[in-house]
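Quick one, probably user error.
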């Protein structure tokens, strides 16, 4: 009871300290919003917050921290302009770093929260990064304002150059600082590994420069091309310009967002990593811009040719069928496209090889031609839906049935498929086509047509179109007015819309990501997604999902702006927000049409008048309604696909719901019609909103607001309490620093250089993984992972004095616990092992090479006794050299494809997997990869070692011994002779090198162990020689060693058989010690099999 009472007192004191600290933080933020005269008070309470919440044991350090925190928040307060507007672009250089009251409070809260929660090696580096954060944001929102051009002019030393050049230089500097802050600055502040390379910085600068050029590339068509060249040539140039502009924009976006996504994974900013991120975005952007403008301009060329239009109009459904057949595969590839789909043109090529796509397109095209002929857009909504449903059912199920019937008549089928297949197809086709036909009424078709001509007009001035500034308000559609530049042509319009999509989705992306966890928990009826959210892994997934949604803005925004439907007539489904939609549904049910219209207009008027209501509805709309419906297309789509598969039964041969229809479910919520009054109703709402905003709300409104705020705080607190309880419930108490490998809850220490990840547990277990950017394909495991504590796996090192006890660094290999054993994080990208046993002290420093997928272990062995001694050392690694999923599905099958070489001149074992394919994007283009894994041991400075032998077959290494007592290390079996070089497929590939060192009395020696991966054998041998500090091996010596072939060493026959047949010869009994050097499964056509 006393212990519980003591724990209760500690928890109570901690809770009180947290409350006091949070109170100080809130007071500091409120004071920071007051401006300059509040600087001293704000700074004092900021320092007091850190003193209470993160107290240091050193008084001098605490005083320094207090002073720094005081100065940082006091500076935010001094920069605060009480009359400043929220997120406003500065007009003068003096306003560049001015903060609004909300901005100063936000900067203070972020600074204090970051200092309290972030753990880094340098406390001052973290404080500096948090202090620079709001200043960097001020530079970012000033990109379209005059001060950036002034900065560019200053960098050009005041030379008389065009303003465009000054803007490009200024924009390049701001974006370069942004890139450096995110890609380099944040990892530096957190004490992460940073490669000593200048090339990543050049890529960051190049990305910033190209991104600064993109608006001018988009504008160049209307200035330098359209006025001087005919339209067909201009269209071709415009397509290329759109591809280049989108490539620069997407490359910059992917570079920054991928760096943000990799923060928790500690991904270093290697040249290959940074360039891969930029190139991925640039390639996707170029394809998007090219396809988007090429399609529109090609159609524009046809539309501008009057005879072609006349022929198409006269052909009716027949012409529609021909056009539909030609374009349906392309349209399907576009609809199925996502951020993670294979390359676009390869998918288009594949879809054009399927005949069914032509027939579906013909049916859809004929239906469109018929719809235009009969004036379907003018029909009622129900009429349009029924027409579309009939056409969709015919295009899906009808075409399937026709193909099956044709196969039946030709003898390629014996009967039609189950009625379930056609019923499901008819339902899916009817829903999709019916929804599209319902959506496209006459007004919407007119709007889409107008937007089409806005894209295809490449010079607005020459075409008589108005040239306007493209201004967006990303913060709740009211604040943060940002000018993206003048729209003078279709290419610039596409560029500005993509850019606006990225900016405006910044705030919605986190809501989508959080919503996904809760929706998944609801659909699966499980708390596991919420438990995952309340963990570091969940936080990593949260950021990754948010980054994915943020990138959607690049390609979704132009489509949404083109097809989103504004409705002047209120309905239950076109009210923004999930809760608002629910209330509107009820009001639509109980009120007459006129009263419901008046109610909807009143809500819209209140939305214009009261900012708080606008913010609430925005969160309701983006965080609940849109996010739920979009995420439901993924989470619910999987469930619906499973249910559809069960409905089809054995008739299912692939996905029950096609990918295109599932992606339609993603698009549909983003294009739901929204209510906005027009004409007299708009004037009435605007006038009433102005009057309401200038008058004080009714007194009871404040009371209701207080209740709502209290309810919101309670709900938010309950959510945090639930996540906290889930986090504590799944938290497993582990012993030591990491816990043992393979034990639930254990967390390894990780080293990463961007090319490989090395994991270490304190018991010596661990694994190595090669990152995808290193090999140009999926990541692979180099060694086996410790997924079961009963089967230890890692980079083991066994030690044994002649005739003495066998022990190891880390207790997992031998179950011998060394005294004073420890595993510590020794700084940037380095681990340190210490162990002491049997009169030896072992110190091992493990680090990763800066620019290679190589791990280097420097081993220092100290003789603690006053006598000359000999020590045998043997290593062990188990090879994988394949993707994680492949090896886990069938480890034995993967193992029999791994060949190993031993090269005596390097004292190294090499491994290659014949299952491993190259990183080509197309599966059909992948070939056997020459990638090599290697393990080597060499002598350190002034050290002498004797090579005893090696082993690369695990069963021969362990023999008849237990997992913790290998026969080959206890004198019961001899290792392979070092002279036995060459290739072997041993069915259980491993790498074990055995050396012997001599130590003088109280002497010491050093060894070097090298483990890694290379693209081919040549690079592998060079890497080993370089890191071991030995001369490169002569090519003829290496070729001689690699060209040899070795055979398996069979175990010695036992003196007495360990097996016995029954008297009738129908069964055999095996004793536990029966040697089984191979594991192989054989079976016949009758289902009988055996394991040999």
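Nope, works fine. Designed sequence:
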């Amino acid at each position: 009871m006393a212990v519980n009472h003591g724990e209760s007192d500690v928890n109570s004191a901690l809770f009180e300290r947290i409350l006091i600290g949070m109170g100080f933080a809130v007071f500091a933020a409120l004071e920071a919003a007051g401006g300059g005269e509040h600087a001293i008070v704000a700074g004092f309470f900021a320092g007091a917050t850190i003193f209470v919440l993160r107290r240091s044991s050193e008084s001098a350090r605490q005083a320094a921290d207090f002073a720094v925190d005081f100065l940082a928040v006091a500076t935010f307060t001094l920069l605060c302009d009480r009359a400043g507007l929220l997120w406003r672009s500065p007009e003068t250089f003096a306003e560049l770093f001015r903060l609004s009251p909300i901005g100063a409070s936000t900067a203070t809260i972020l600074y204090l929260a970051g200092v309290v929660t972030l753990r880094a090696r340098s406390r001052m580096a973290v404080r500096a990064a948090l202090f620079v954060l709001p200043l960097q944001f001020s530079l970012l929102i000033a990109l379209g304002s005059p001060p950036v051009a002034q900065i560019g002019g200053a960098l050009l030393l005041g030379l008389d150059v065009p303003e465009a050049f000054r803007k490009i230089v200024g924009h390049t500097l701001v974006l370069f600082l942004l890139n450096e802050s995110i890609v380099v600055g944040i990892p530096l502040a957190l004490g992460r590994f940073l490669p000593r390379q200048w090339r990543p910085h050049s890529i960051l600068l190049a990305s910033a420069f190209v991104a600064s050029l993109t608006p001018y590339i988009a504008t160049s068509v209307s200035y330098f091309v359209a006025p001087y060249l005919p339209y067909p040539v201009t269209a071709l140039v415009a397509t290329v310009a759109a591809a280049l502009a989108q490539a620069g924009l997407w490359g910059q976006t992917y570079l920054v967002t991928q760096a943000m996504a990799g923060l928790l994974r500690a991904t270093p900013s290697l040249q290959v990593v940074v360039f891969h991120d930029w190139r991925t975005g640039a390639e996707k952007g170029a394809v998007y811009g090219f396809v988007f403008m090429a399609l529109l301009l090609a159609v524009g060329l046809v539309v501008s040719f009057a005879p072609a239009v006349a022929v198409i109009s006269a052909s009716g459904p027949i012409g529609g069928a021909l056009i539909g057949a030609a374009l349906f595969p392309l349209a399907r590839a576009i609809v199925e496209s996502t951020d993670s789909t294979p390359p676009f043109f390869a998918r288009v090529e594949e879809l054009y090889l399927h005949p069914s796509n032509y027939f579906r397109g013909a049916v859809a095209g004929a239906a469109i031609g018929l719809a235009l002929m009969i004036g379907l857009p003018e029909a009622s909504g129900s009429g349009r839906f029924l027409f579309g449903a009939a056409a969709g059912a015919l295009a899906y199920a009808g075409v399937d049935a026709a193909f099956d019937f044709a196969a039946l008549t030709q003898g390629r089928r014996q009967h039609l498929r189950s009625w379930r297949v056609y019923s499901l197809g008819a339902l899916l086709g009817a829903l999709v086509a019916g929804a599209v036909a319902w959506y496209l009424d006459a007004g919407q078709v007119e709007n889409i047509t107008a937007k089409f001509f806005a894209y295809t007009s490449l010079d607005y001035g020459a075409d008589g179109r108005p040239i306007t500034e493209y201004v967006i308000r990303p913060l709740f559609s009211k604040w943060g007015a940002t000018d993206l530049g003048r729209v003078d042509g279709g290419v610039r319009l596409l560029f500005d819309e993509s850019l606006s999509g990225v900016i405006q989705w910044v705030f919605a992306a986190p809501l989508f990501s959080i919503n996904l966890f809760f929706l998944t928990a609801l659909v699966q009826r499980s708390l596991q997604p919420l438990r995952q959210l309340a963990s570091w892994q969940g936080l990593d997934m949260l950021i990754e999902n948010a980054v994915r949604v943020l990138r959607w803005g690049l390609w979704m925004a132009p489509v949404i702006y083109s097809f989103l439907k504004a409705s002047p007539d209120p309905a239950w489904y076109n009210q923004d927000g999930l809760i608002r939609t629910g209330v509107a549904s009820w009001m639509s049910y109980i009120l007459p049409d006129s009263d419901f219209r008046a109610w909807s207009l009143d809500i819209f008027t209140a939305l214009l008048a009261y900012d708080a209501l606008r913010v609430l509805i925005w969160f309701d709309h983006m965080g609940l309604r849109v996010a739920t419906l979009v995420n439901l297309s993924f989470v619910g789509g999987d469930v619906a696909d499973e249910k559809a598969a069960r409905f089809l039964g054995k008739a299912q041969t692939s996905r029950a719901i096609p990918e295109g229809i599932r992606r339609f479910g993603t698009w549909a919520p983003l294009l739901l019609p929204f209510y906005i009054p027009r004409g007299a109703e708009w004037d009435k709402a605007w006038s009433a909103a102005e009057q309401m905003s200038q008058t004080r709300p009714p007194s009871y409104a404040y009371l209701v607001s207080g209740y709502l705020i209290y309810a919101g705080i309670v709900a938010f607190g309950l959510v945090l309490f639930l996540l906290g309880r889930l986090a504590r419930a799944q938290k497993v108490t582990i012993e030591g620093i990491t816990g043992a490998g393979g034990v639930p809850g254990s967390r390894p220490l990780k080293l990463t250089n961007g090319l490989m990840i090395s994991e270490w547990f304190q018991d010596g277990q661990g694994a190595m993984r090669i990152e995808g950017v290193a090999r140009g394909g999926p990541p692979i495991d180099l060694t086996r992972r410790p997924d079961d504590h009963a089967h230890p796996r890692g980079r083991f090192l066994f030690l044994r004095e002649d005739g003495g006890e066998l022990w190891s660094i880390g207790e997992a290999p031998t179950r011998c616990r060394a005294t004073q054993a420890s595993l510590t994080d020794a700084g940037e990208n380095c681990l340190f092992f210490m162990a002491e046993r049997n009169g030896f002290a072992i110190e091992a420093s493990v680090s990763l090479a800066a620019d290679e997928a190589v791990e280097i272990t420097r081993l220092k062995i100290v003789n603690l006794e006053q006598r000359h001694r000999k020590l045998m050392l043997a290593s062990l690694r188990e090879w994988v050299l394949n993707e994680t999923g492949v090896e886990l599905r069938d480890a034995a099958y993967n193992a029999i494809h791994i060949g190993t070489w031993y090269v005596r001149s390097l004292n190294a074992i090499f491994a290659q997997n014949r299952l491993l394919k190259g990183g080509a994007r197309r599966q059909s283009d992948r070939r056997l990869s020459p990638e090599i894994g290697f393990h080597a041991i060499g002598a350190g400075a002034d050290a002498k070692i004797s090579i005893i032998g090696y082993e690369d077959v695990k069963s021969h290494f362990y023999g008849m011994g237990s997992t913790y007592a290998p026969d080959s290390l206890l004198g019961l079996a001899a290792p392979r002779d070092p002279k036995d070089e060459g290739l072997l497929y041993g069915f259980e590939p491993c790498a074990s090198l055995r050396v012997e060192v001599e130590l003088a009395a109280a002497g010491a020696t050093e060894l070097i162990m090298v483990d890694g991966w290379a693209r081919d054998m040549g690079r592998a041998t060079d890497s080993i020689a370089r890191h071991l500090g030995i001369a490169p091996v002569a090519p003829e010596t290496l070729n001689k060693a690699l060209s040899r072939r070795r055979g398996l060493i069979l175990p010695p026959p036992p003196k007495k058989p360990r097996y016995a047949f029954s008297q009738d010869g129908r069964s055999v009994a095996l004793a536990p010690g029966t040697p089984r050097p191979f594991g192989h499964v054989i079976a016949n056509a009758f289902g009988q099999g055996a394991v040999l």
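DSSP finds 32 helices and 26 strands in the chain.
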